[in-house]
Amino acid sequence: MLLPTPEGGLRPHRPTATPLAPFSSAPARSRTFYAAAHVAASPPAGQDRDGPVIDWEATLGSRHRLWALGLGVAEAMDTAQRGMGLGWPGAAELIRRSTAEARAVGGRIVCGAGTDQLPPGRVHPLAAVTAAYEEQLAHIEDCGAGAVLLASRSLAAAARGPEDYLEVYGALLSRSARPVVLHWLGPVFDPELAGYWGHDDLGEAAELLLKIVDECPGKVDGVKVSLLEPEREKELRRRLPAGVRCYTGDDHHYPELIAGDGELASDALLGIFGPIAPLAARAALALDREDPGGFRALLDPTVALSRHLFAPPTPLYKTGVALLAWLAGHQEHFTMLAGLESARSLPHLARAYELADLLGLFPDPELAAGRMRRLLSEQGVEP
Q: Which residues contact 335 (CB under 8 A, 6 or more apart)?
């Protein structure tokens, strides 16, 4: 197969003939792994005039594959296109359906609570931001799931300083029925979140986050850190109170952070865990066997794929996630909410296919190769 390059040329790739063997497992004991799952959209012919339509069979099927591998599902997160095609009504339905499926199979699930029902493009009063969070938190807890308090663009716009973050998060934690995960999504993932926690300096921002955790004992299950700065994450996890997890959201350095330093280690809530789920699940069991070398041998080779998918502009990583799900046969169409399938270049998509194929991630390599050839041909490239 000839794959297009960013320079305008073509390079040869010989598709693999050997996929990973089938695998299923109970959840790992040594770490908690959540995969932030994506949403499959129906093809354009299946859309209506009120907005995009979710392919529920494919979307929920992806959650069942994660649970069968022993991974947890982080639902309605950034990976599910929150704020990039999936609004709160769709997210609320997604949460309702996914939590019901999780109960049916005993799968682990947490769900994102944010403020995206507020109209964008204007500054809302702090009370309105808090009320929006509370509405989503109540829905998640009514569905029987734990919540991830997503970093909020509306709060970032409304907050006048650190004290406003203390007020909002203090109110939410005092009213939550179960421990939540606090979410720190850095500006590399969303530029509108610059200055979150009331500080442009990340060290000062971390101090405010730690203050929120310290002032609400028993209310925080963990902190999810997506900064792509591993040393800062290590410092933060060192200072978290006993019993509060550090969930790495660092899709560039996750093997190192999860493996740990012999004393402390990160758990994980990662967007890359969807595409590499079979390898992540195997790696988790290596840690259960106290085999960090085996863990790194399984996960280190996946970093090239992850760094490619999460290359700038980082928010567009979701396009590669959906592409790989389609190539793997997990959905029938390479179609995304808001037409995001067109957000990445053809050479970028070709490289994503190549890297995933080399890892053996496609259950049916011939199907994946055939679909990739079709995509190339539709774009005028003779594969």
A: 40, 41, 42, 43, 44, 341
Name the CA radius of gyration of the chain, rounded.
Answer: 20
Q: Which residue do the tokens 């999860």 mark?
A: 258
Max CA distance (Å), the chain: 61
pLDDT digits (tens, 9 = 90+) for 336-347: 999 999 999 999
pLDDT of 382 reads 84
Q: What is the mean pLDDT of residues 51-65?
A: 91
At residue 125 the predicted structure's pLDDT band, cuts being 50, 70 and 90, is very high
In 7-117 the beta strands, taken as DSSP E runs, fall at: 10-12, 33-36, 72-75, 109-113
Three-state SS for 120? coil
Evaluated on CA atoms 68, 69, 74, 75, the torsion sign reads negative
Q: How far is CA 166 from CA 169, 174, 196, 214, 285, in A?
A: 5, 12, 12, 11, 38
Among 37, 112, 111, smallest CA distance to 69 is for: 37
d(Cα 55, Cα 214) in Å, to the nearest integer? Answer: 42
- The beta strand positions in 121-232, using DSSP E, are 146-149, 180-185, 220-226
In the structure encoding, which two tokens stand for residue 352, read together? 């994503």
Burial class (CB in 10 A: 0-12, 13-18, 19+), 243: exposed
Residue 269's SS3 state is: strand
Tokens of 22: 């089938």
- Decide the pairing of beta strands 72-75 and 109-113: parallel
pLDDT the model gives residue 297: 98
For β-strands 10-12 and 180-185, DSSP reports them as: unpaired
How crowded is the C-beta side of 329, counted as CA atoms within 13 Å? 10
The predicted model scores a pTM of 0.95
Sole residue written with tokens 């004290």: 163
Question: Tokens 């270049």 sit at which residue?
Answer: 345
Those residues whose C-beta lies under 8 Å from the C-beta of residue 230, and which sit 6 or more positions away, are 250, 252, 253, 256, 257
- Quote the tokens at residue 186: 């850095």
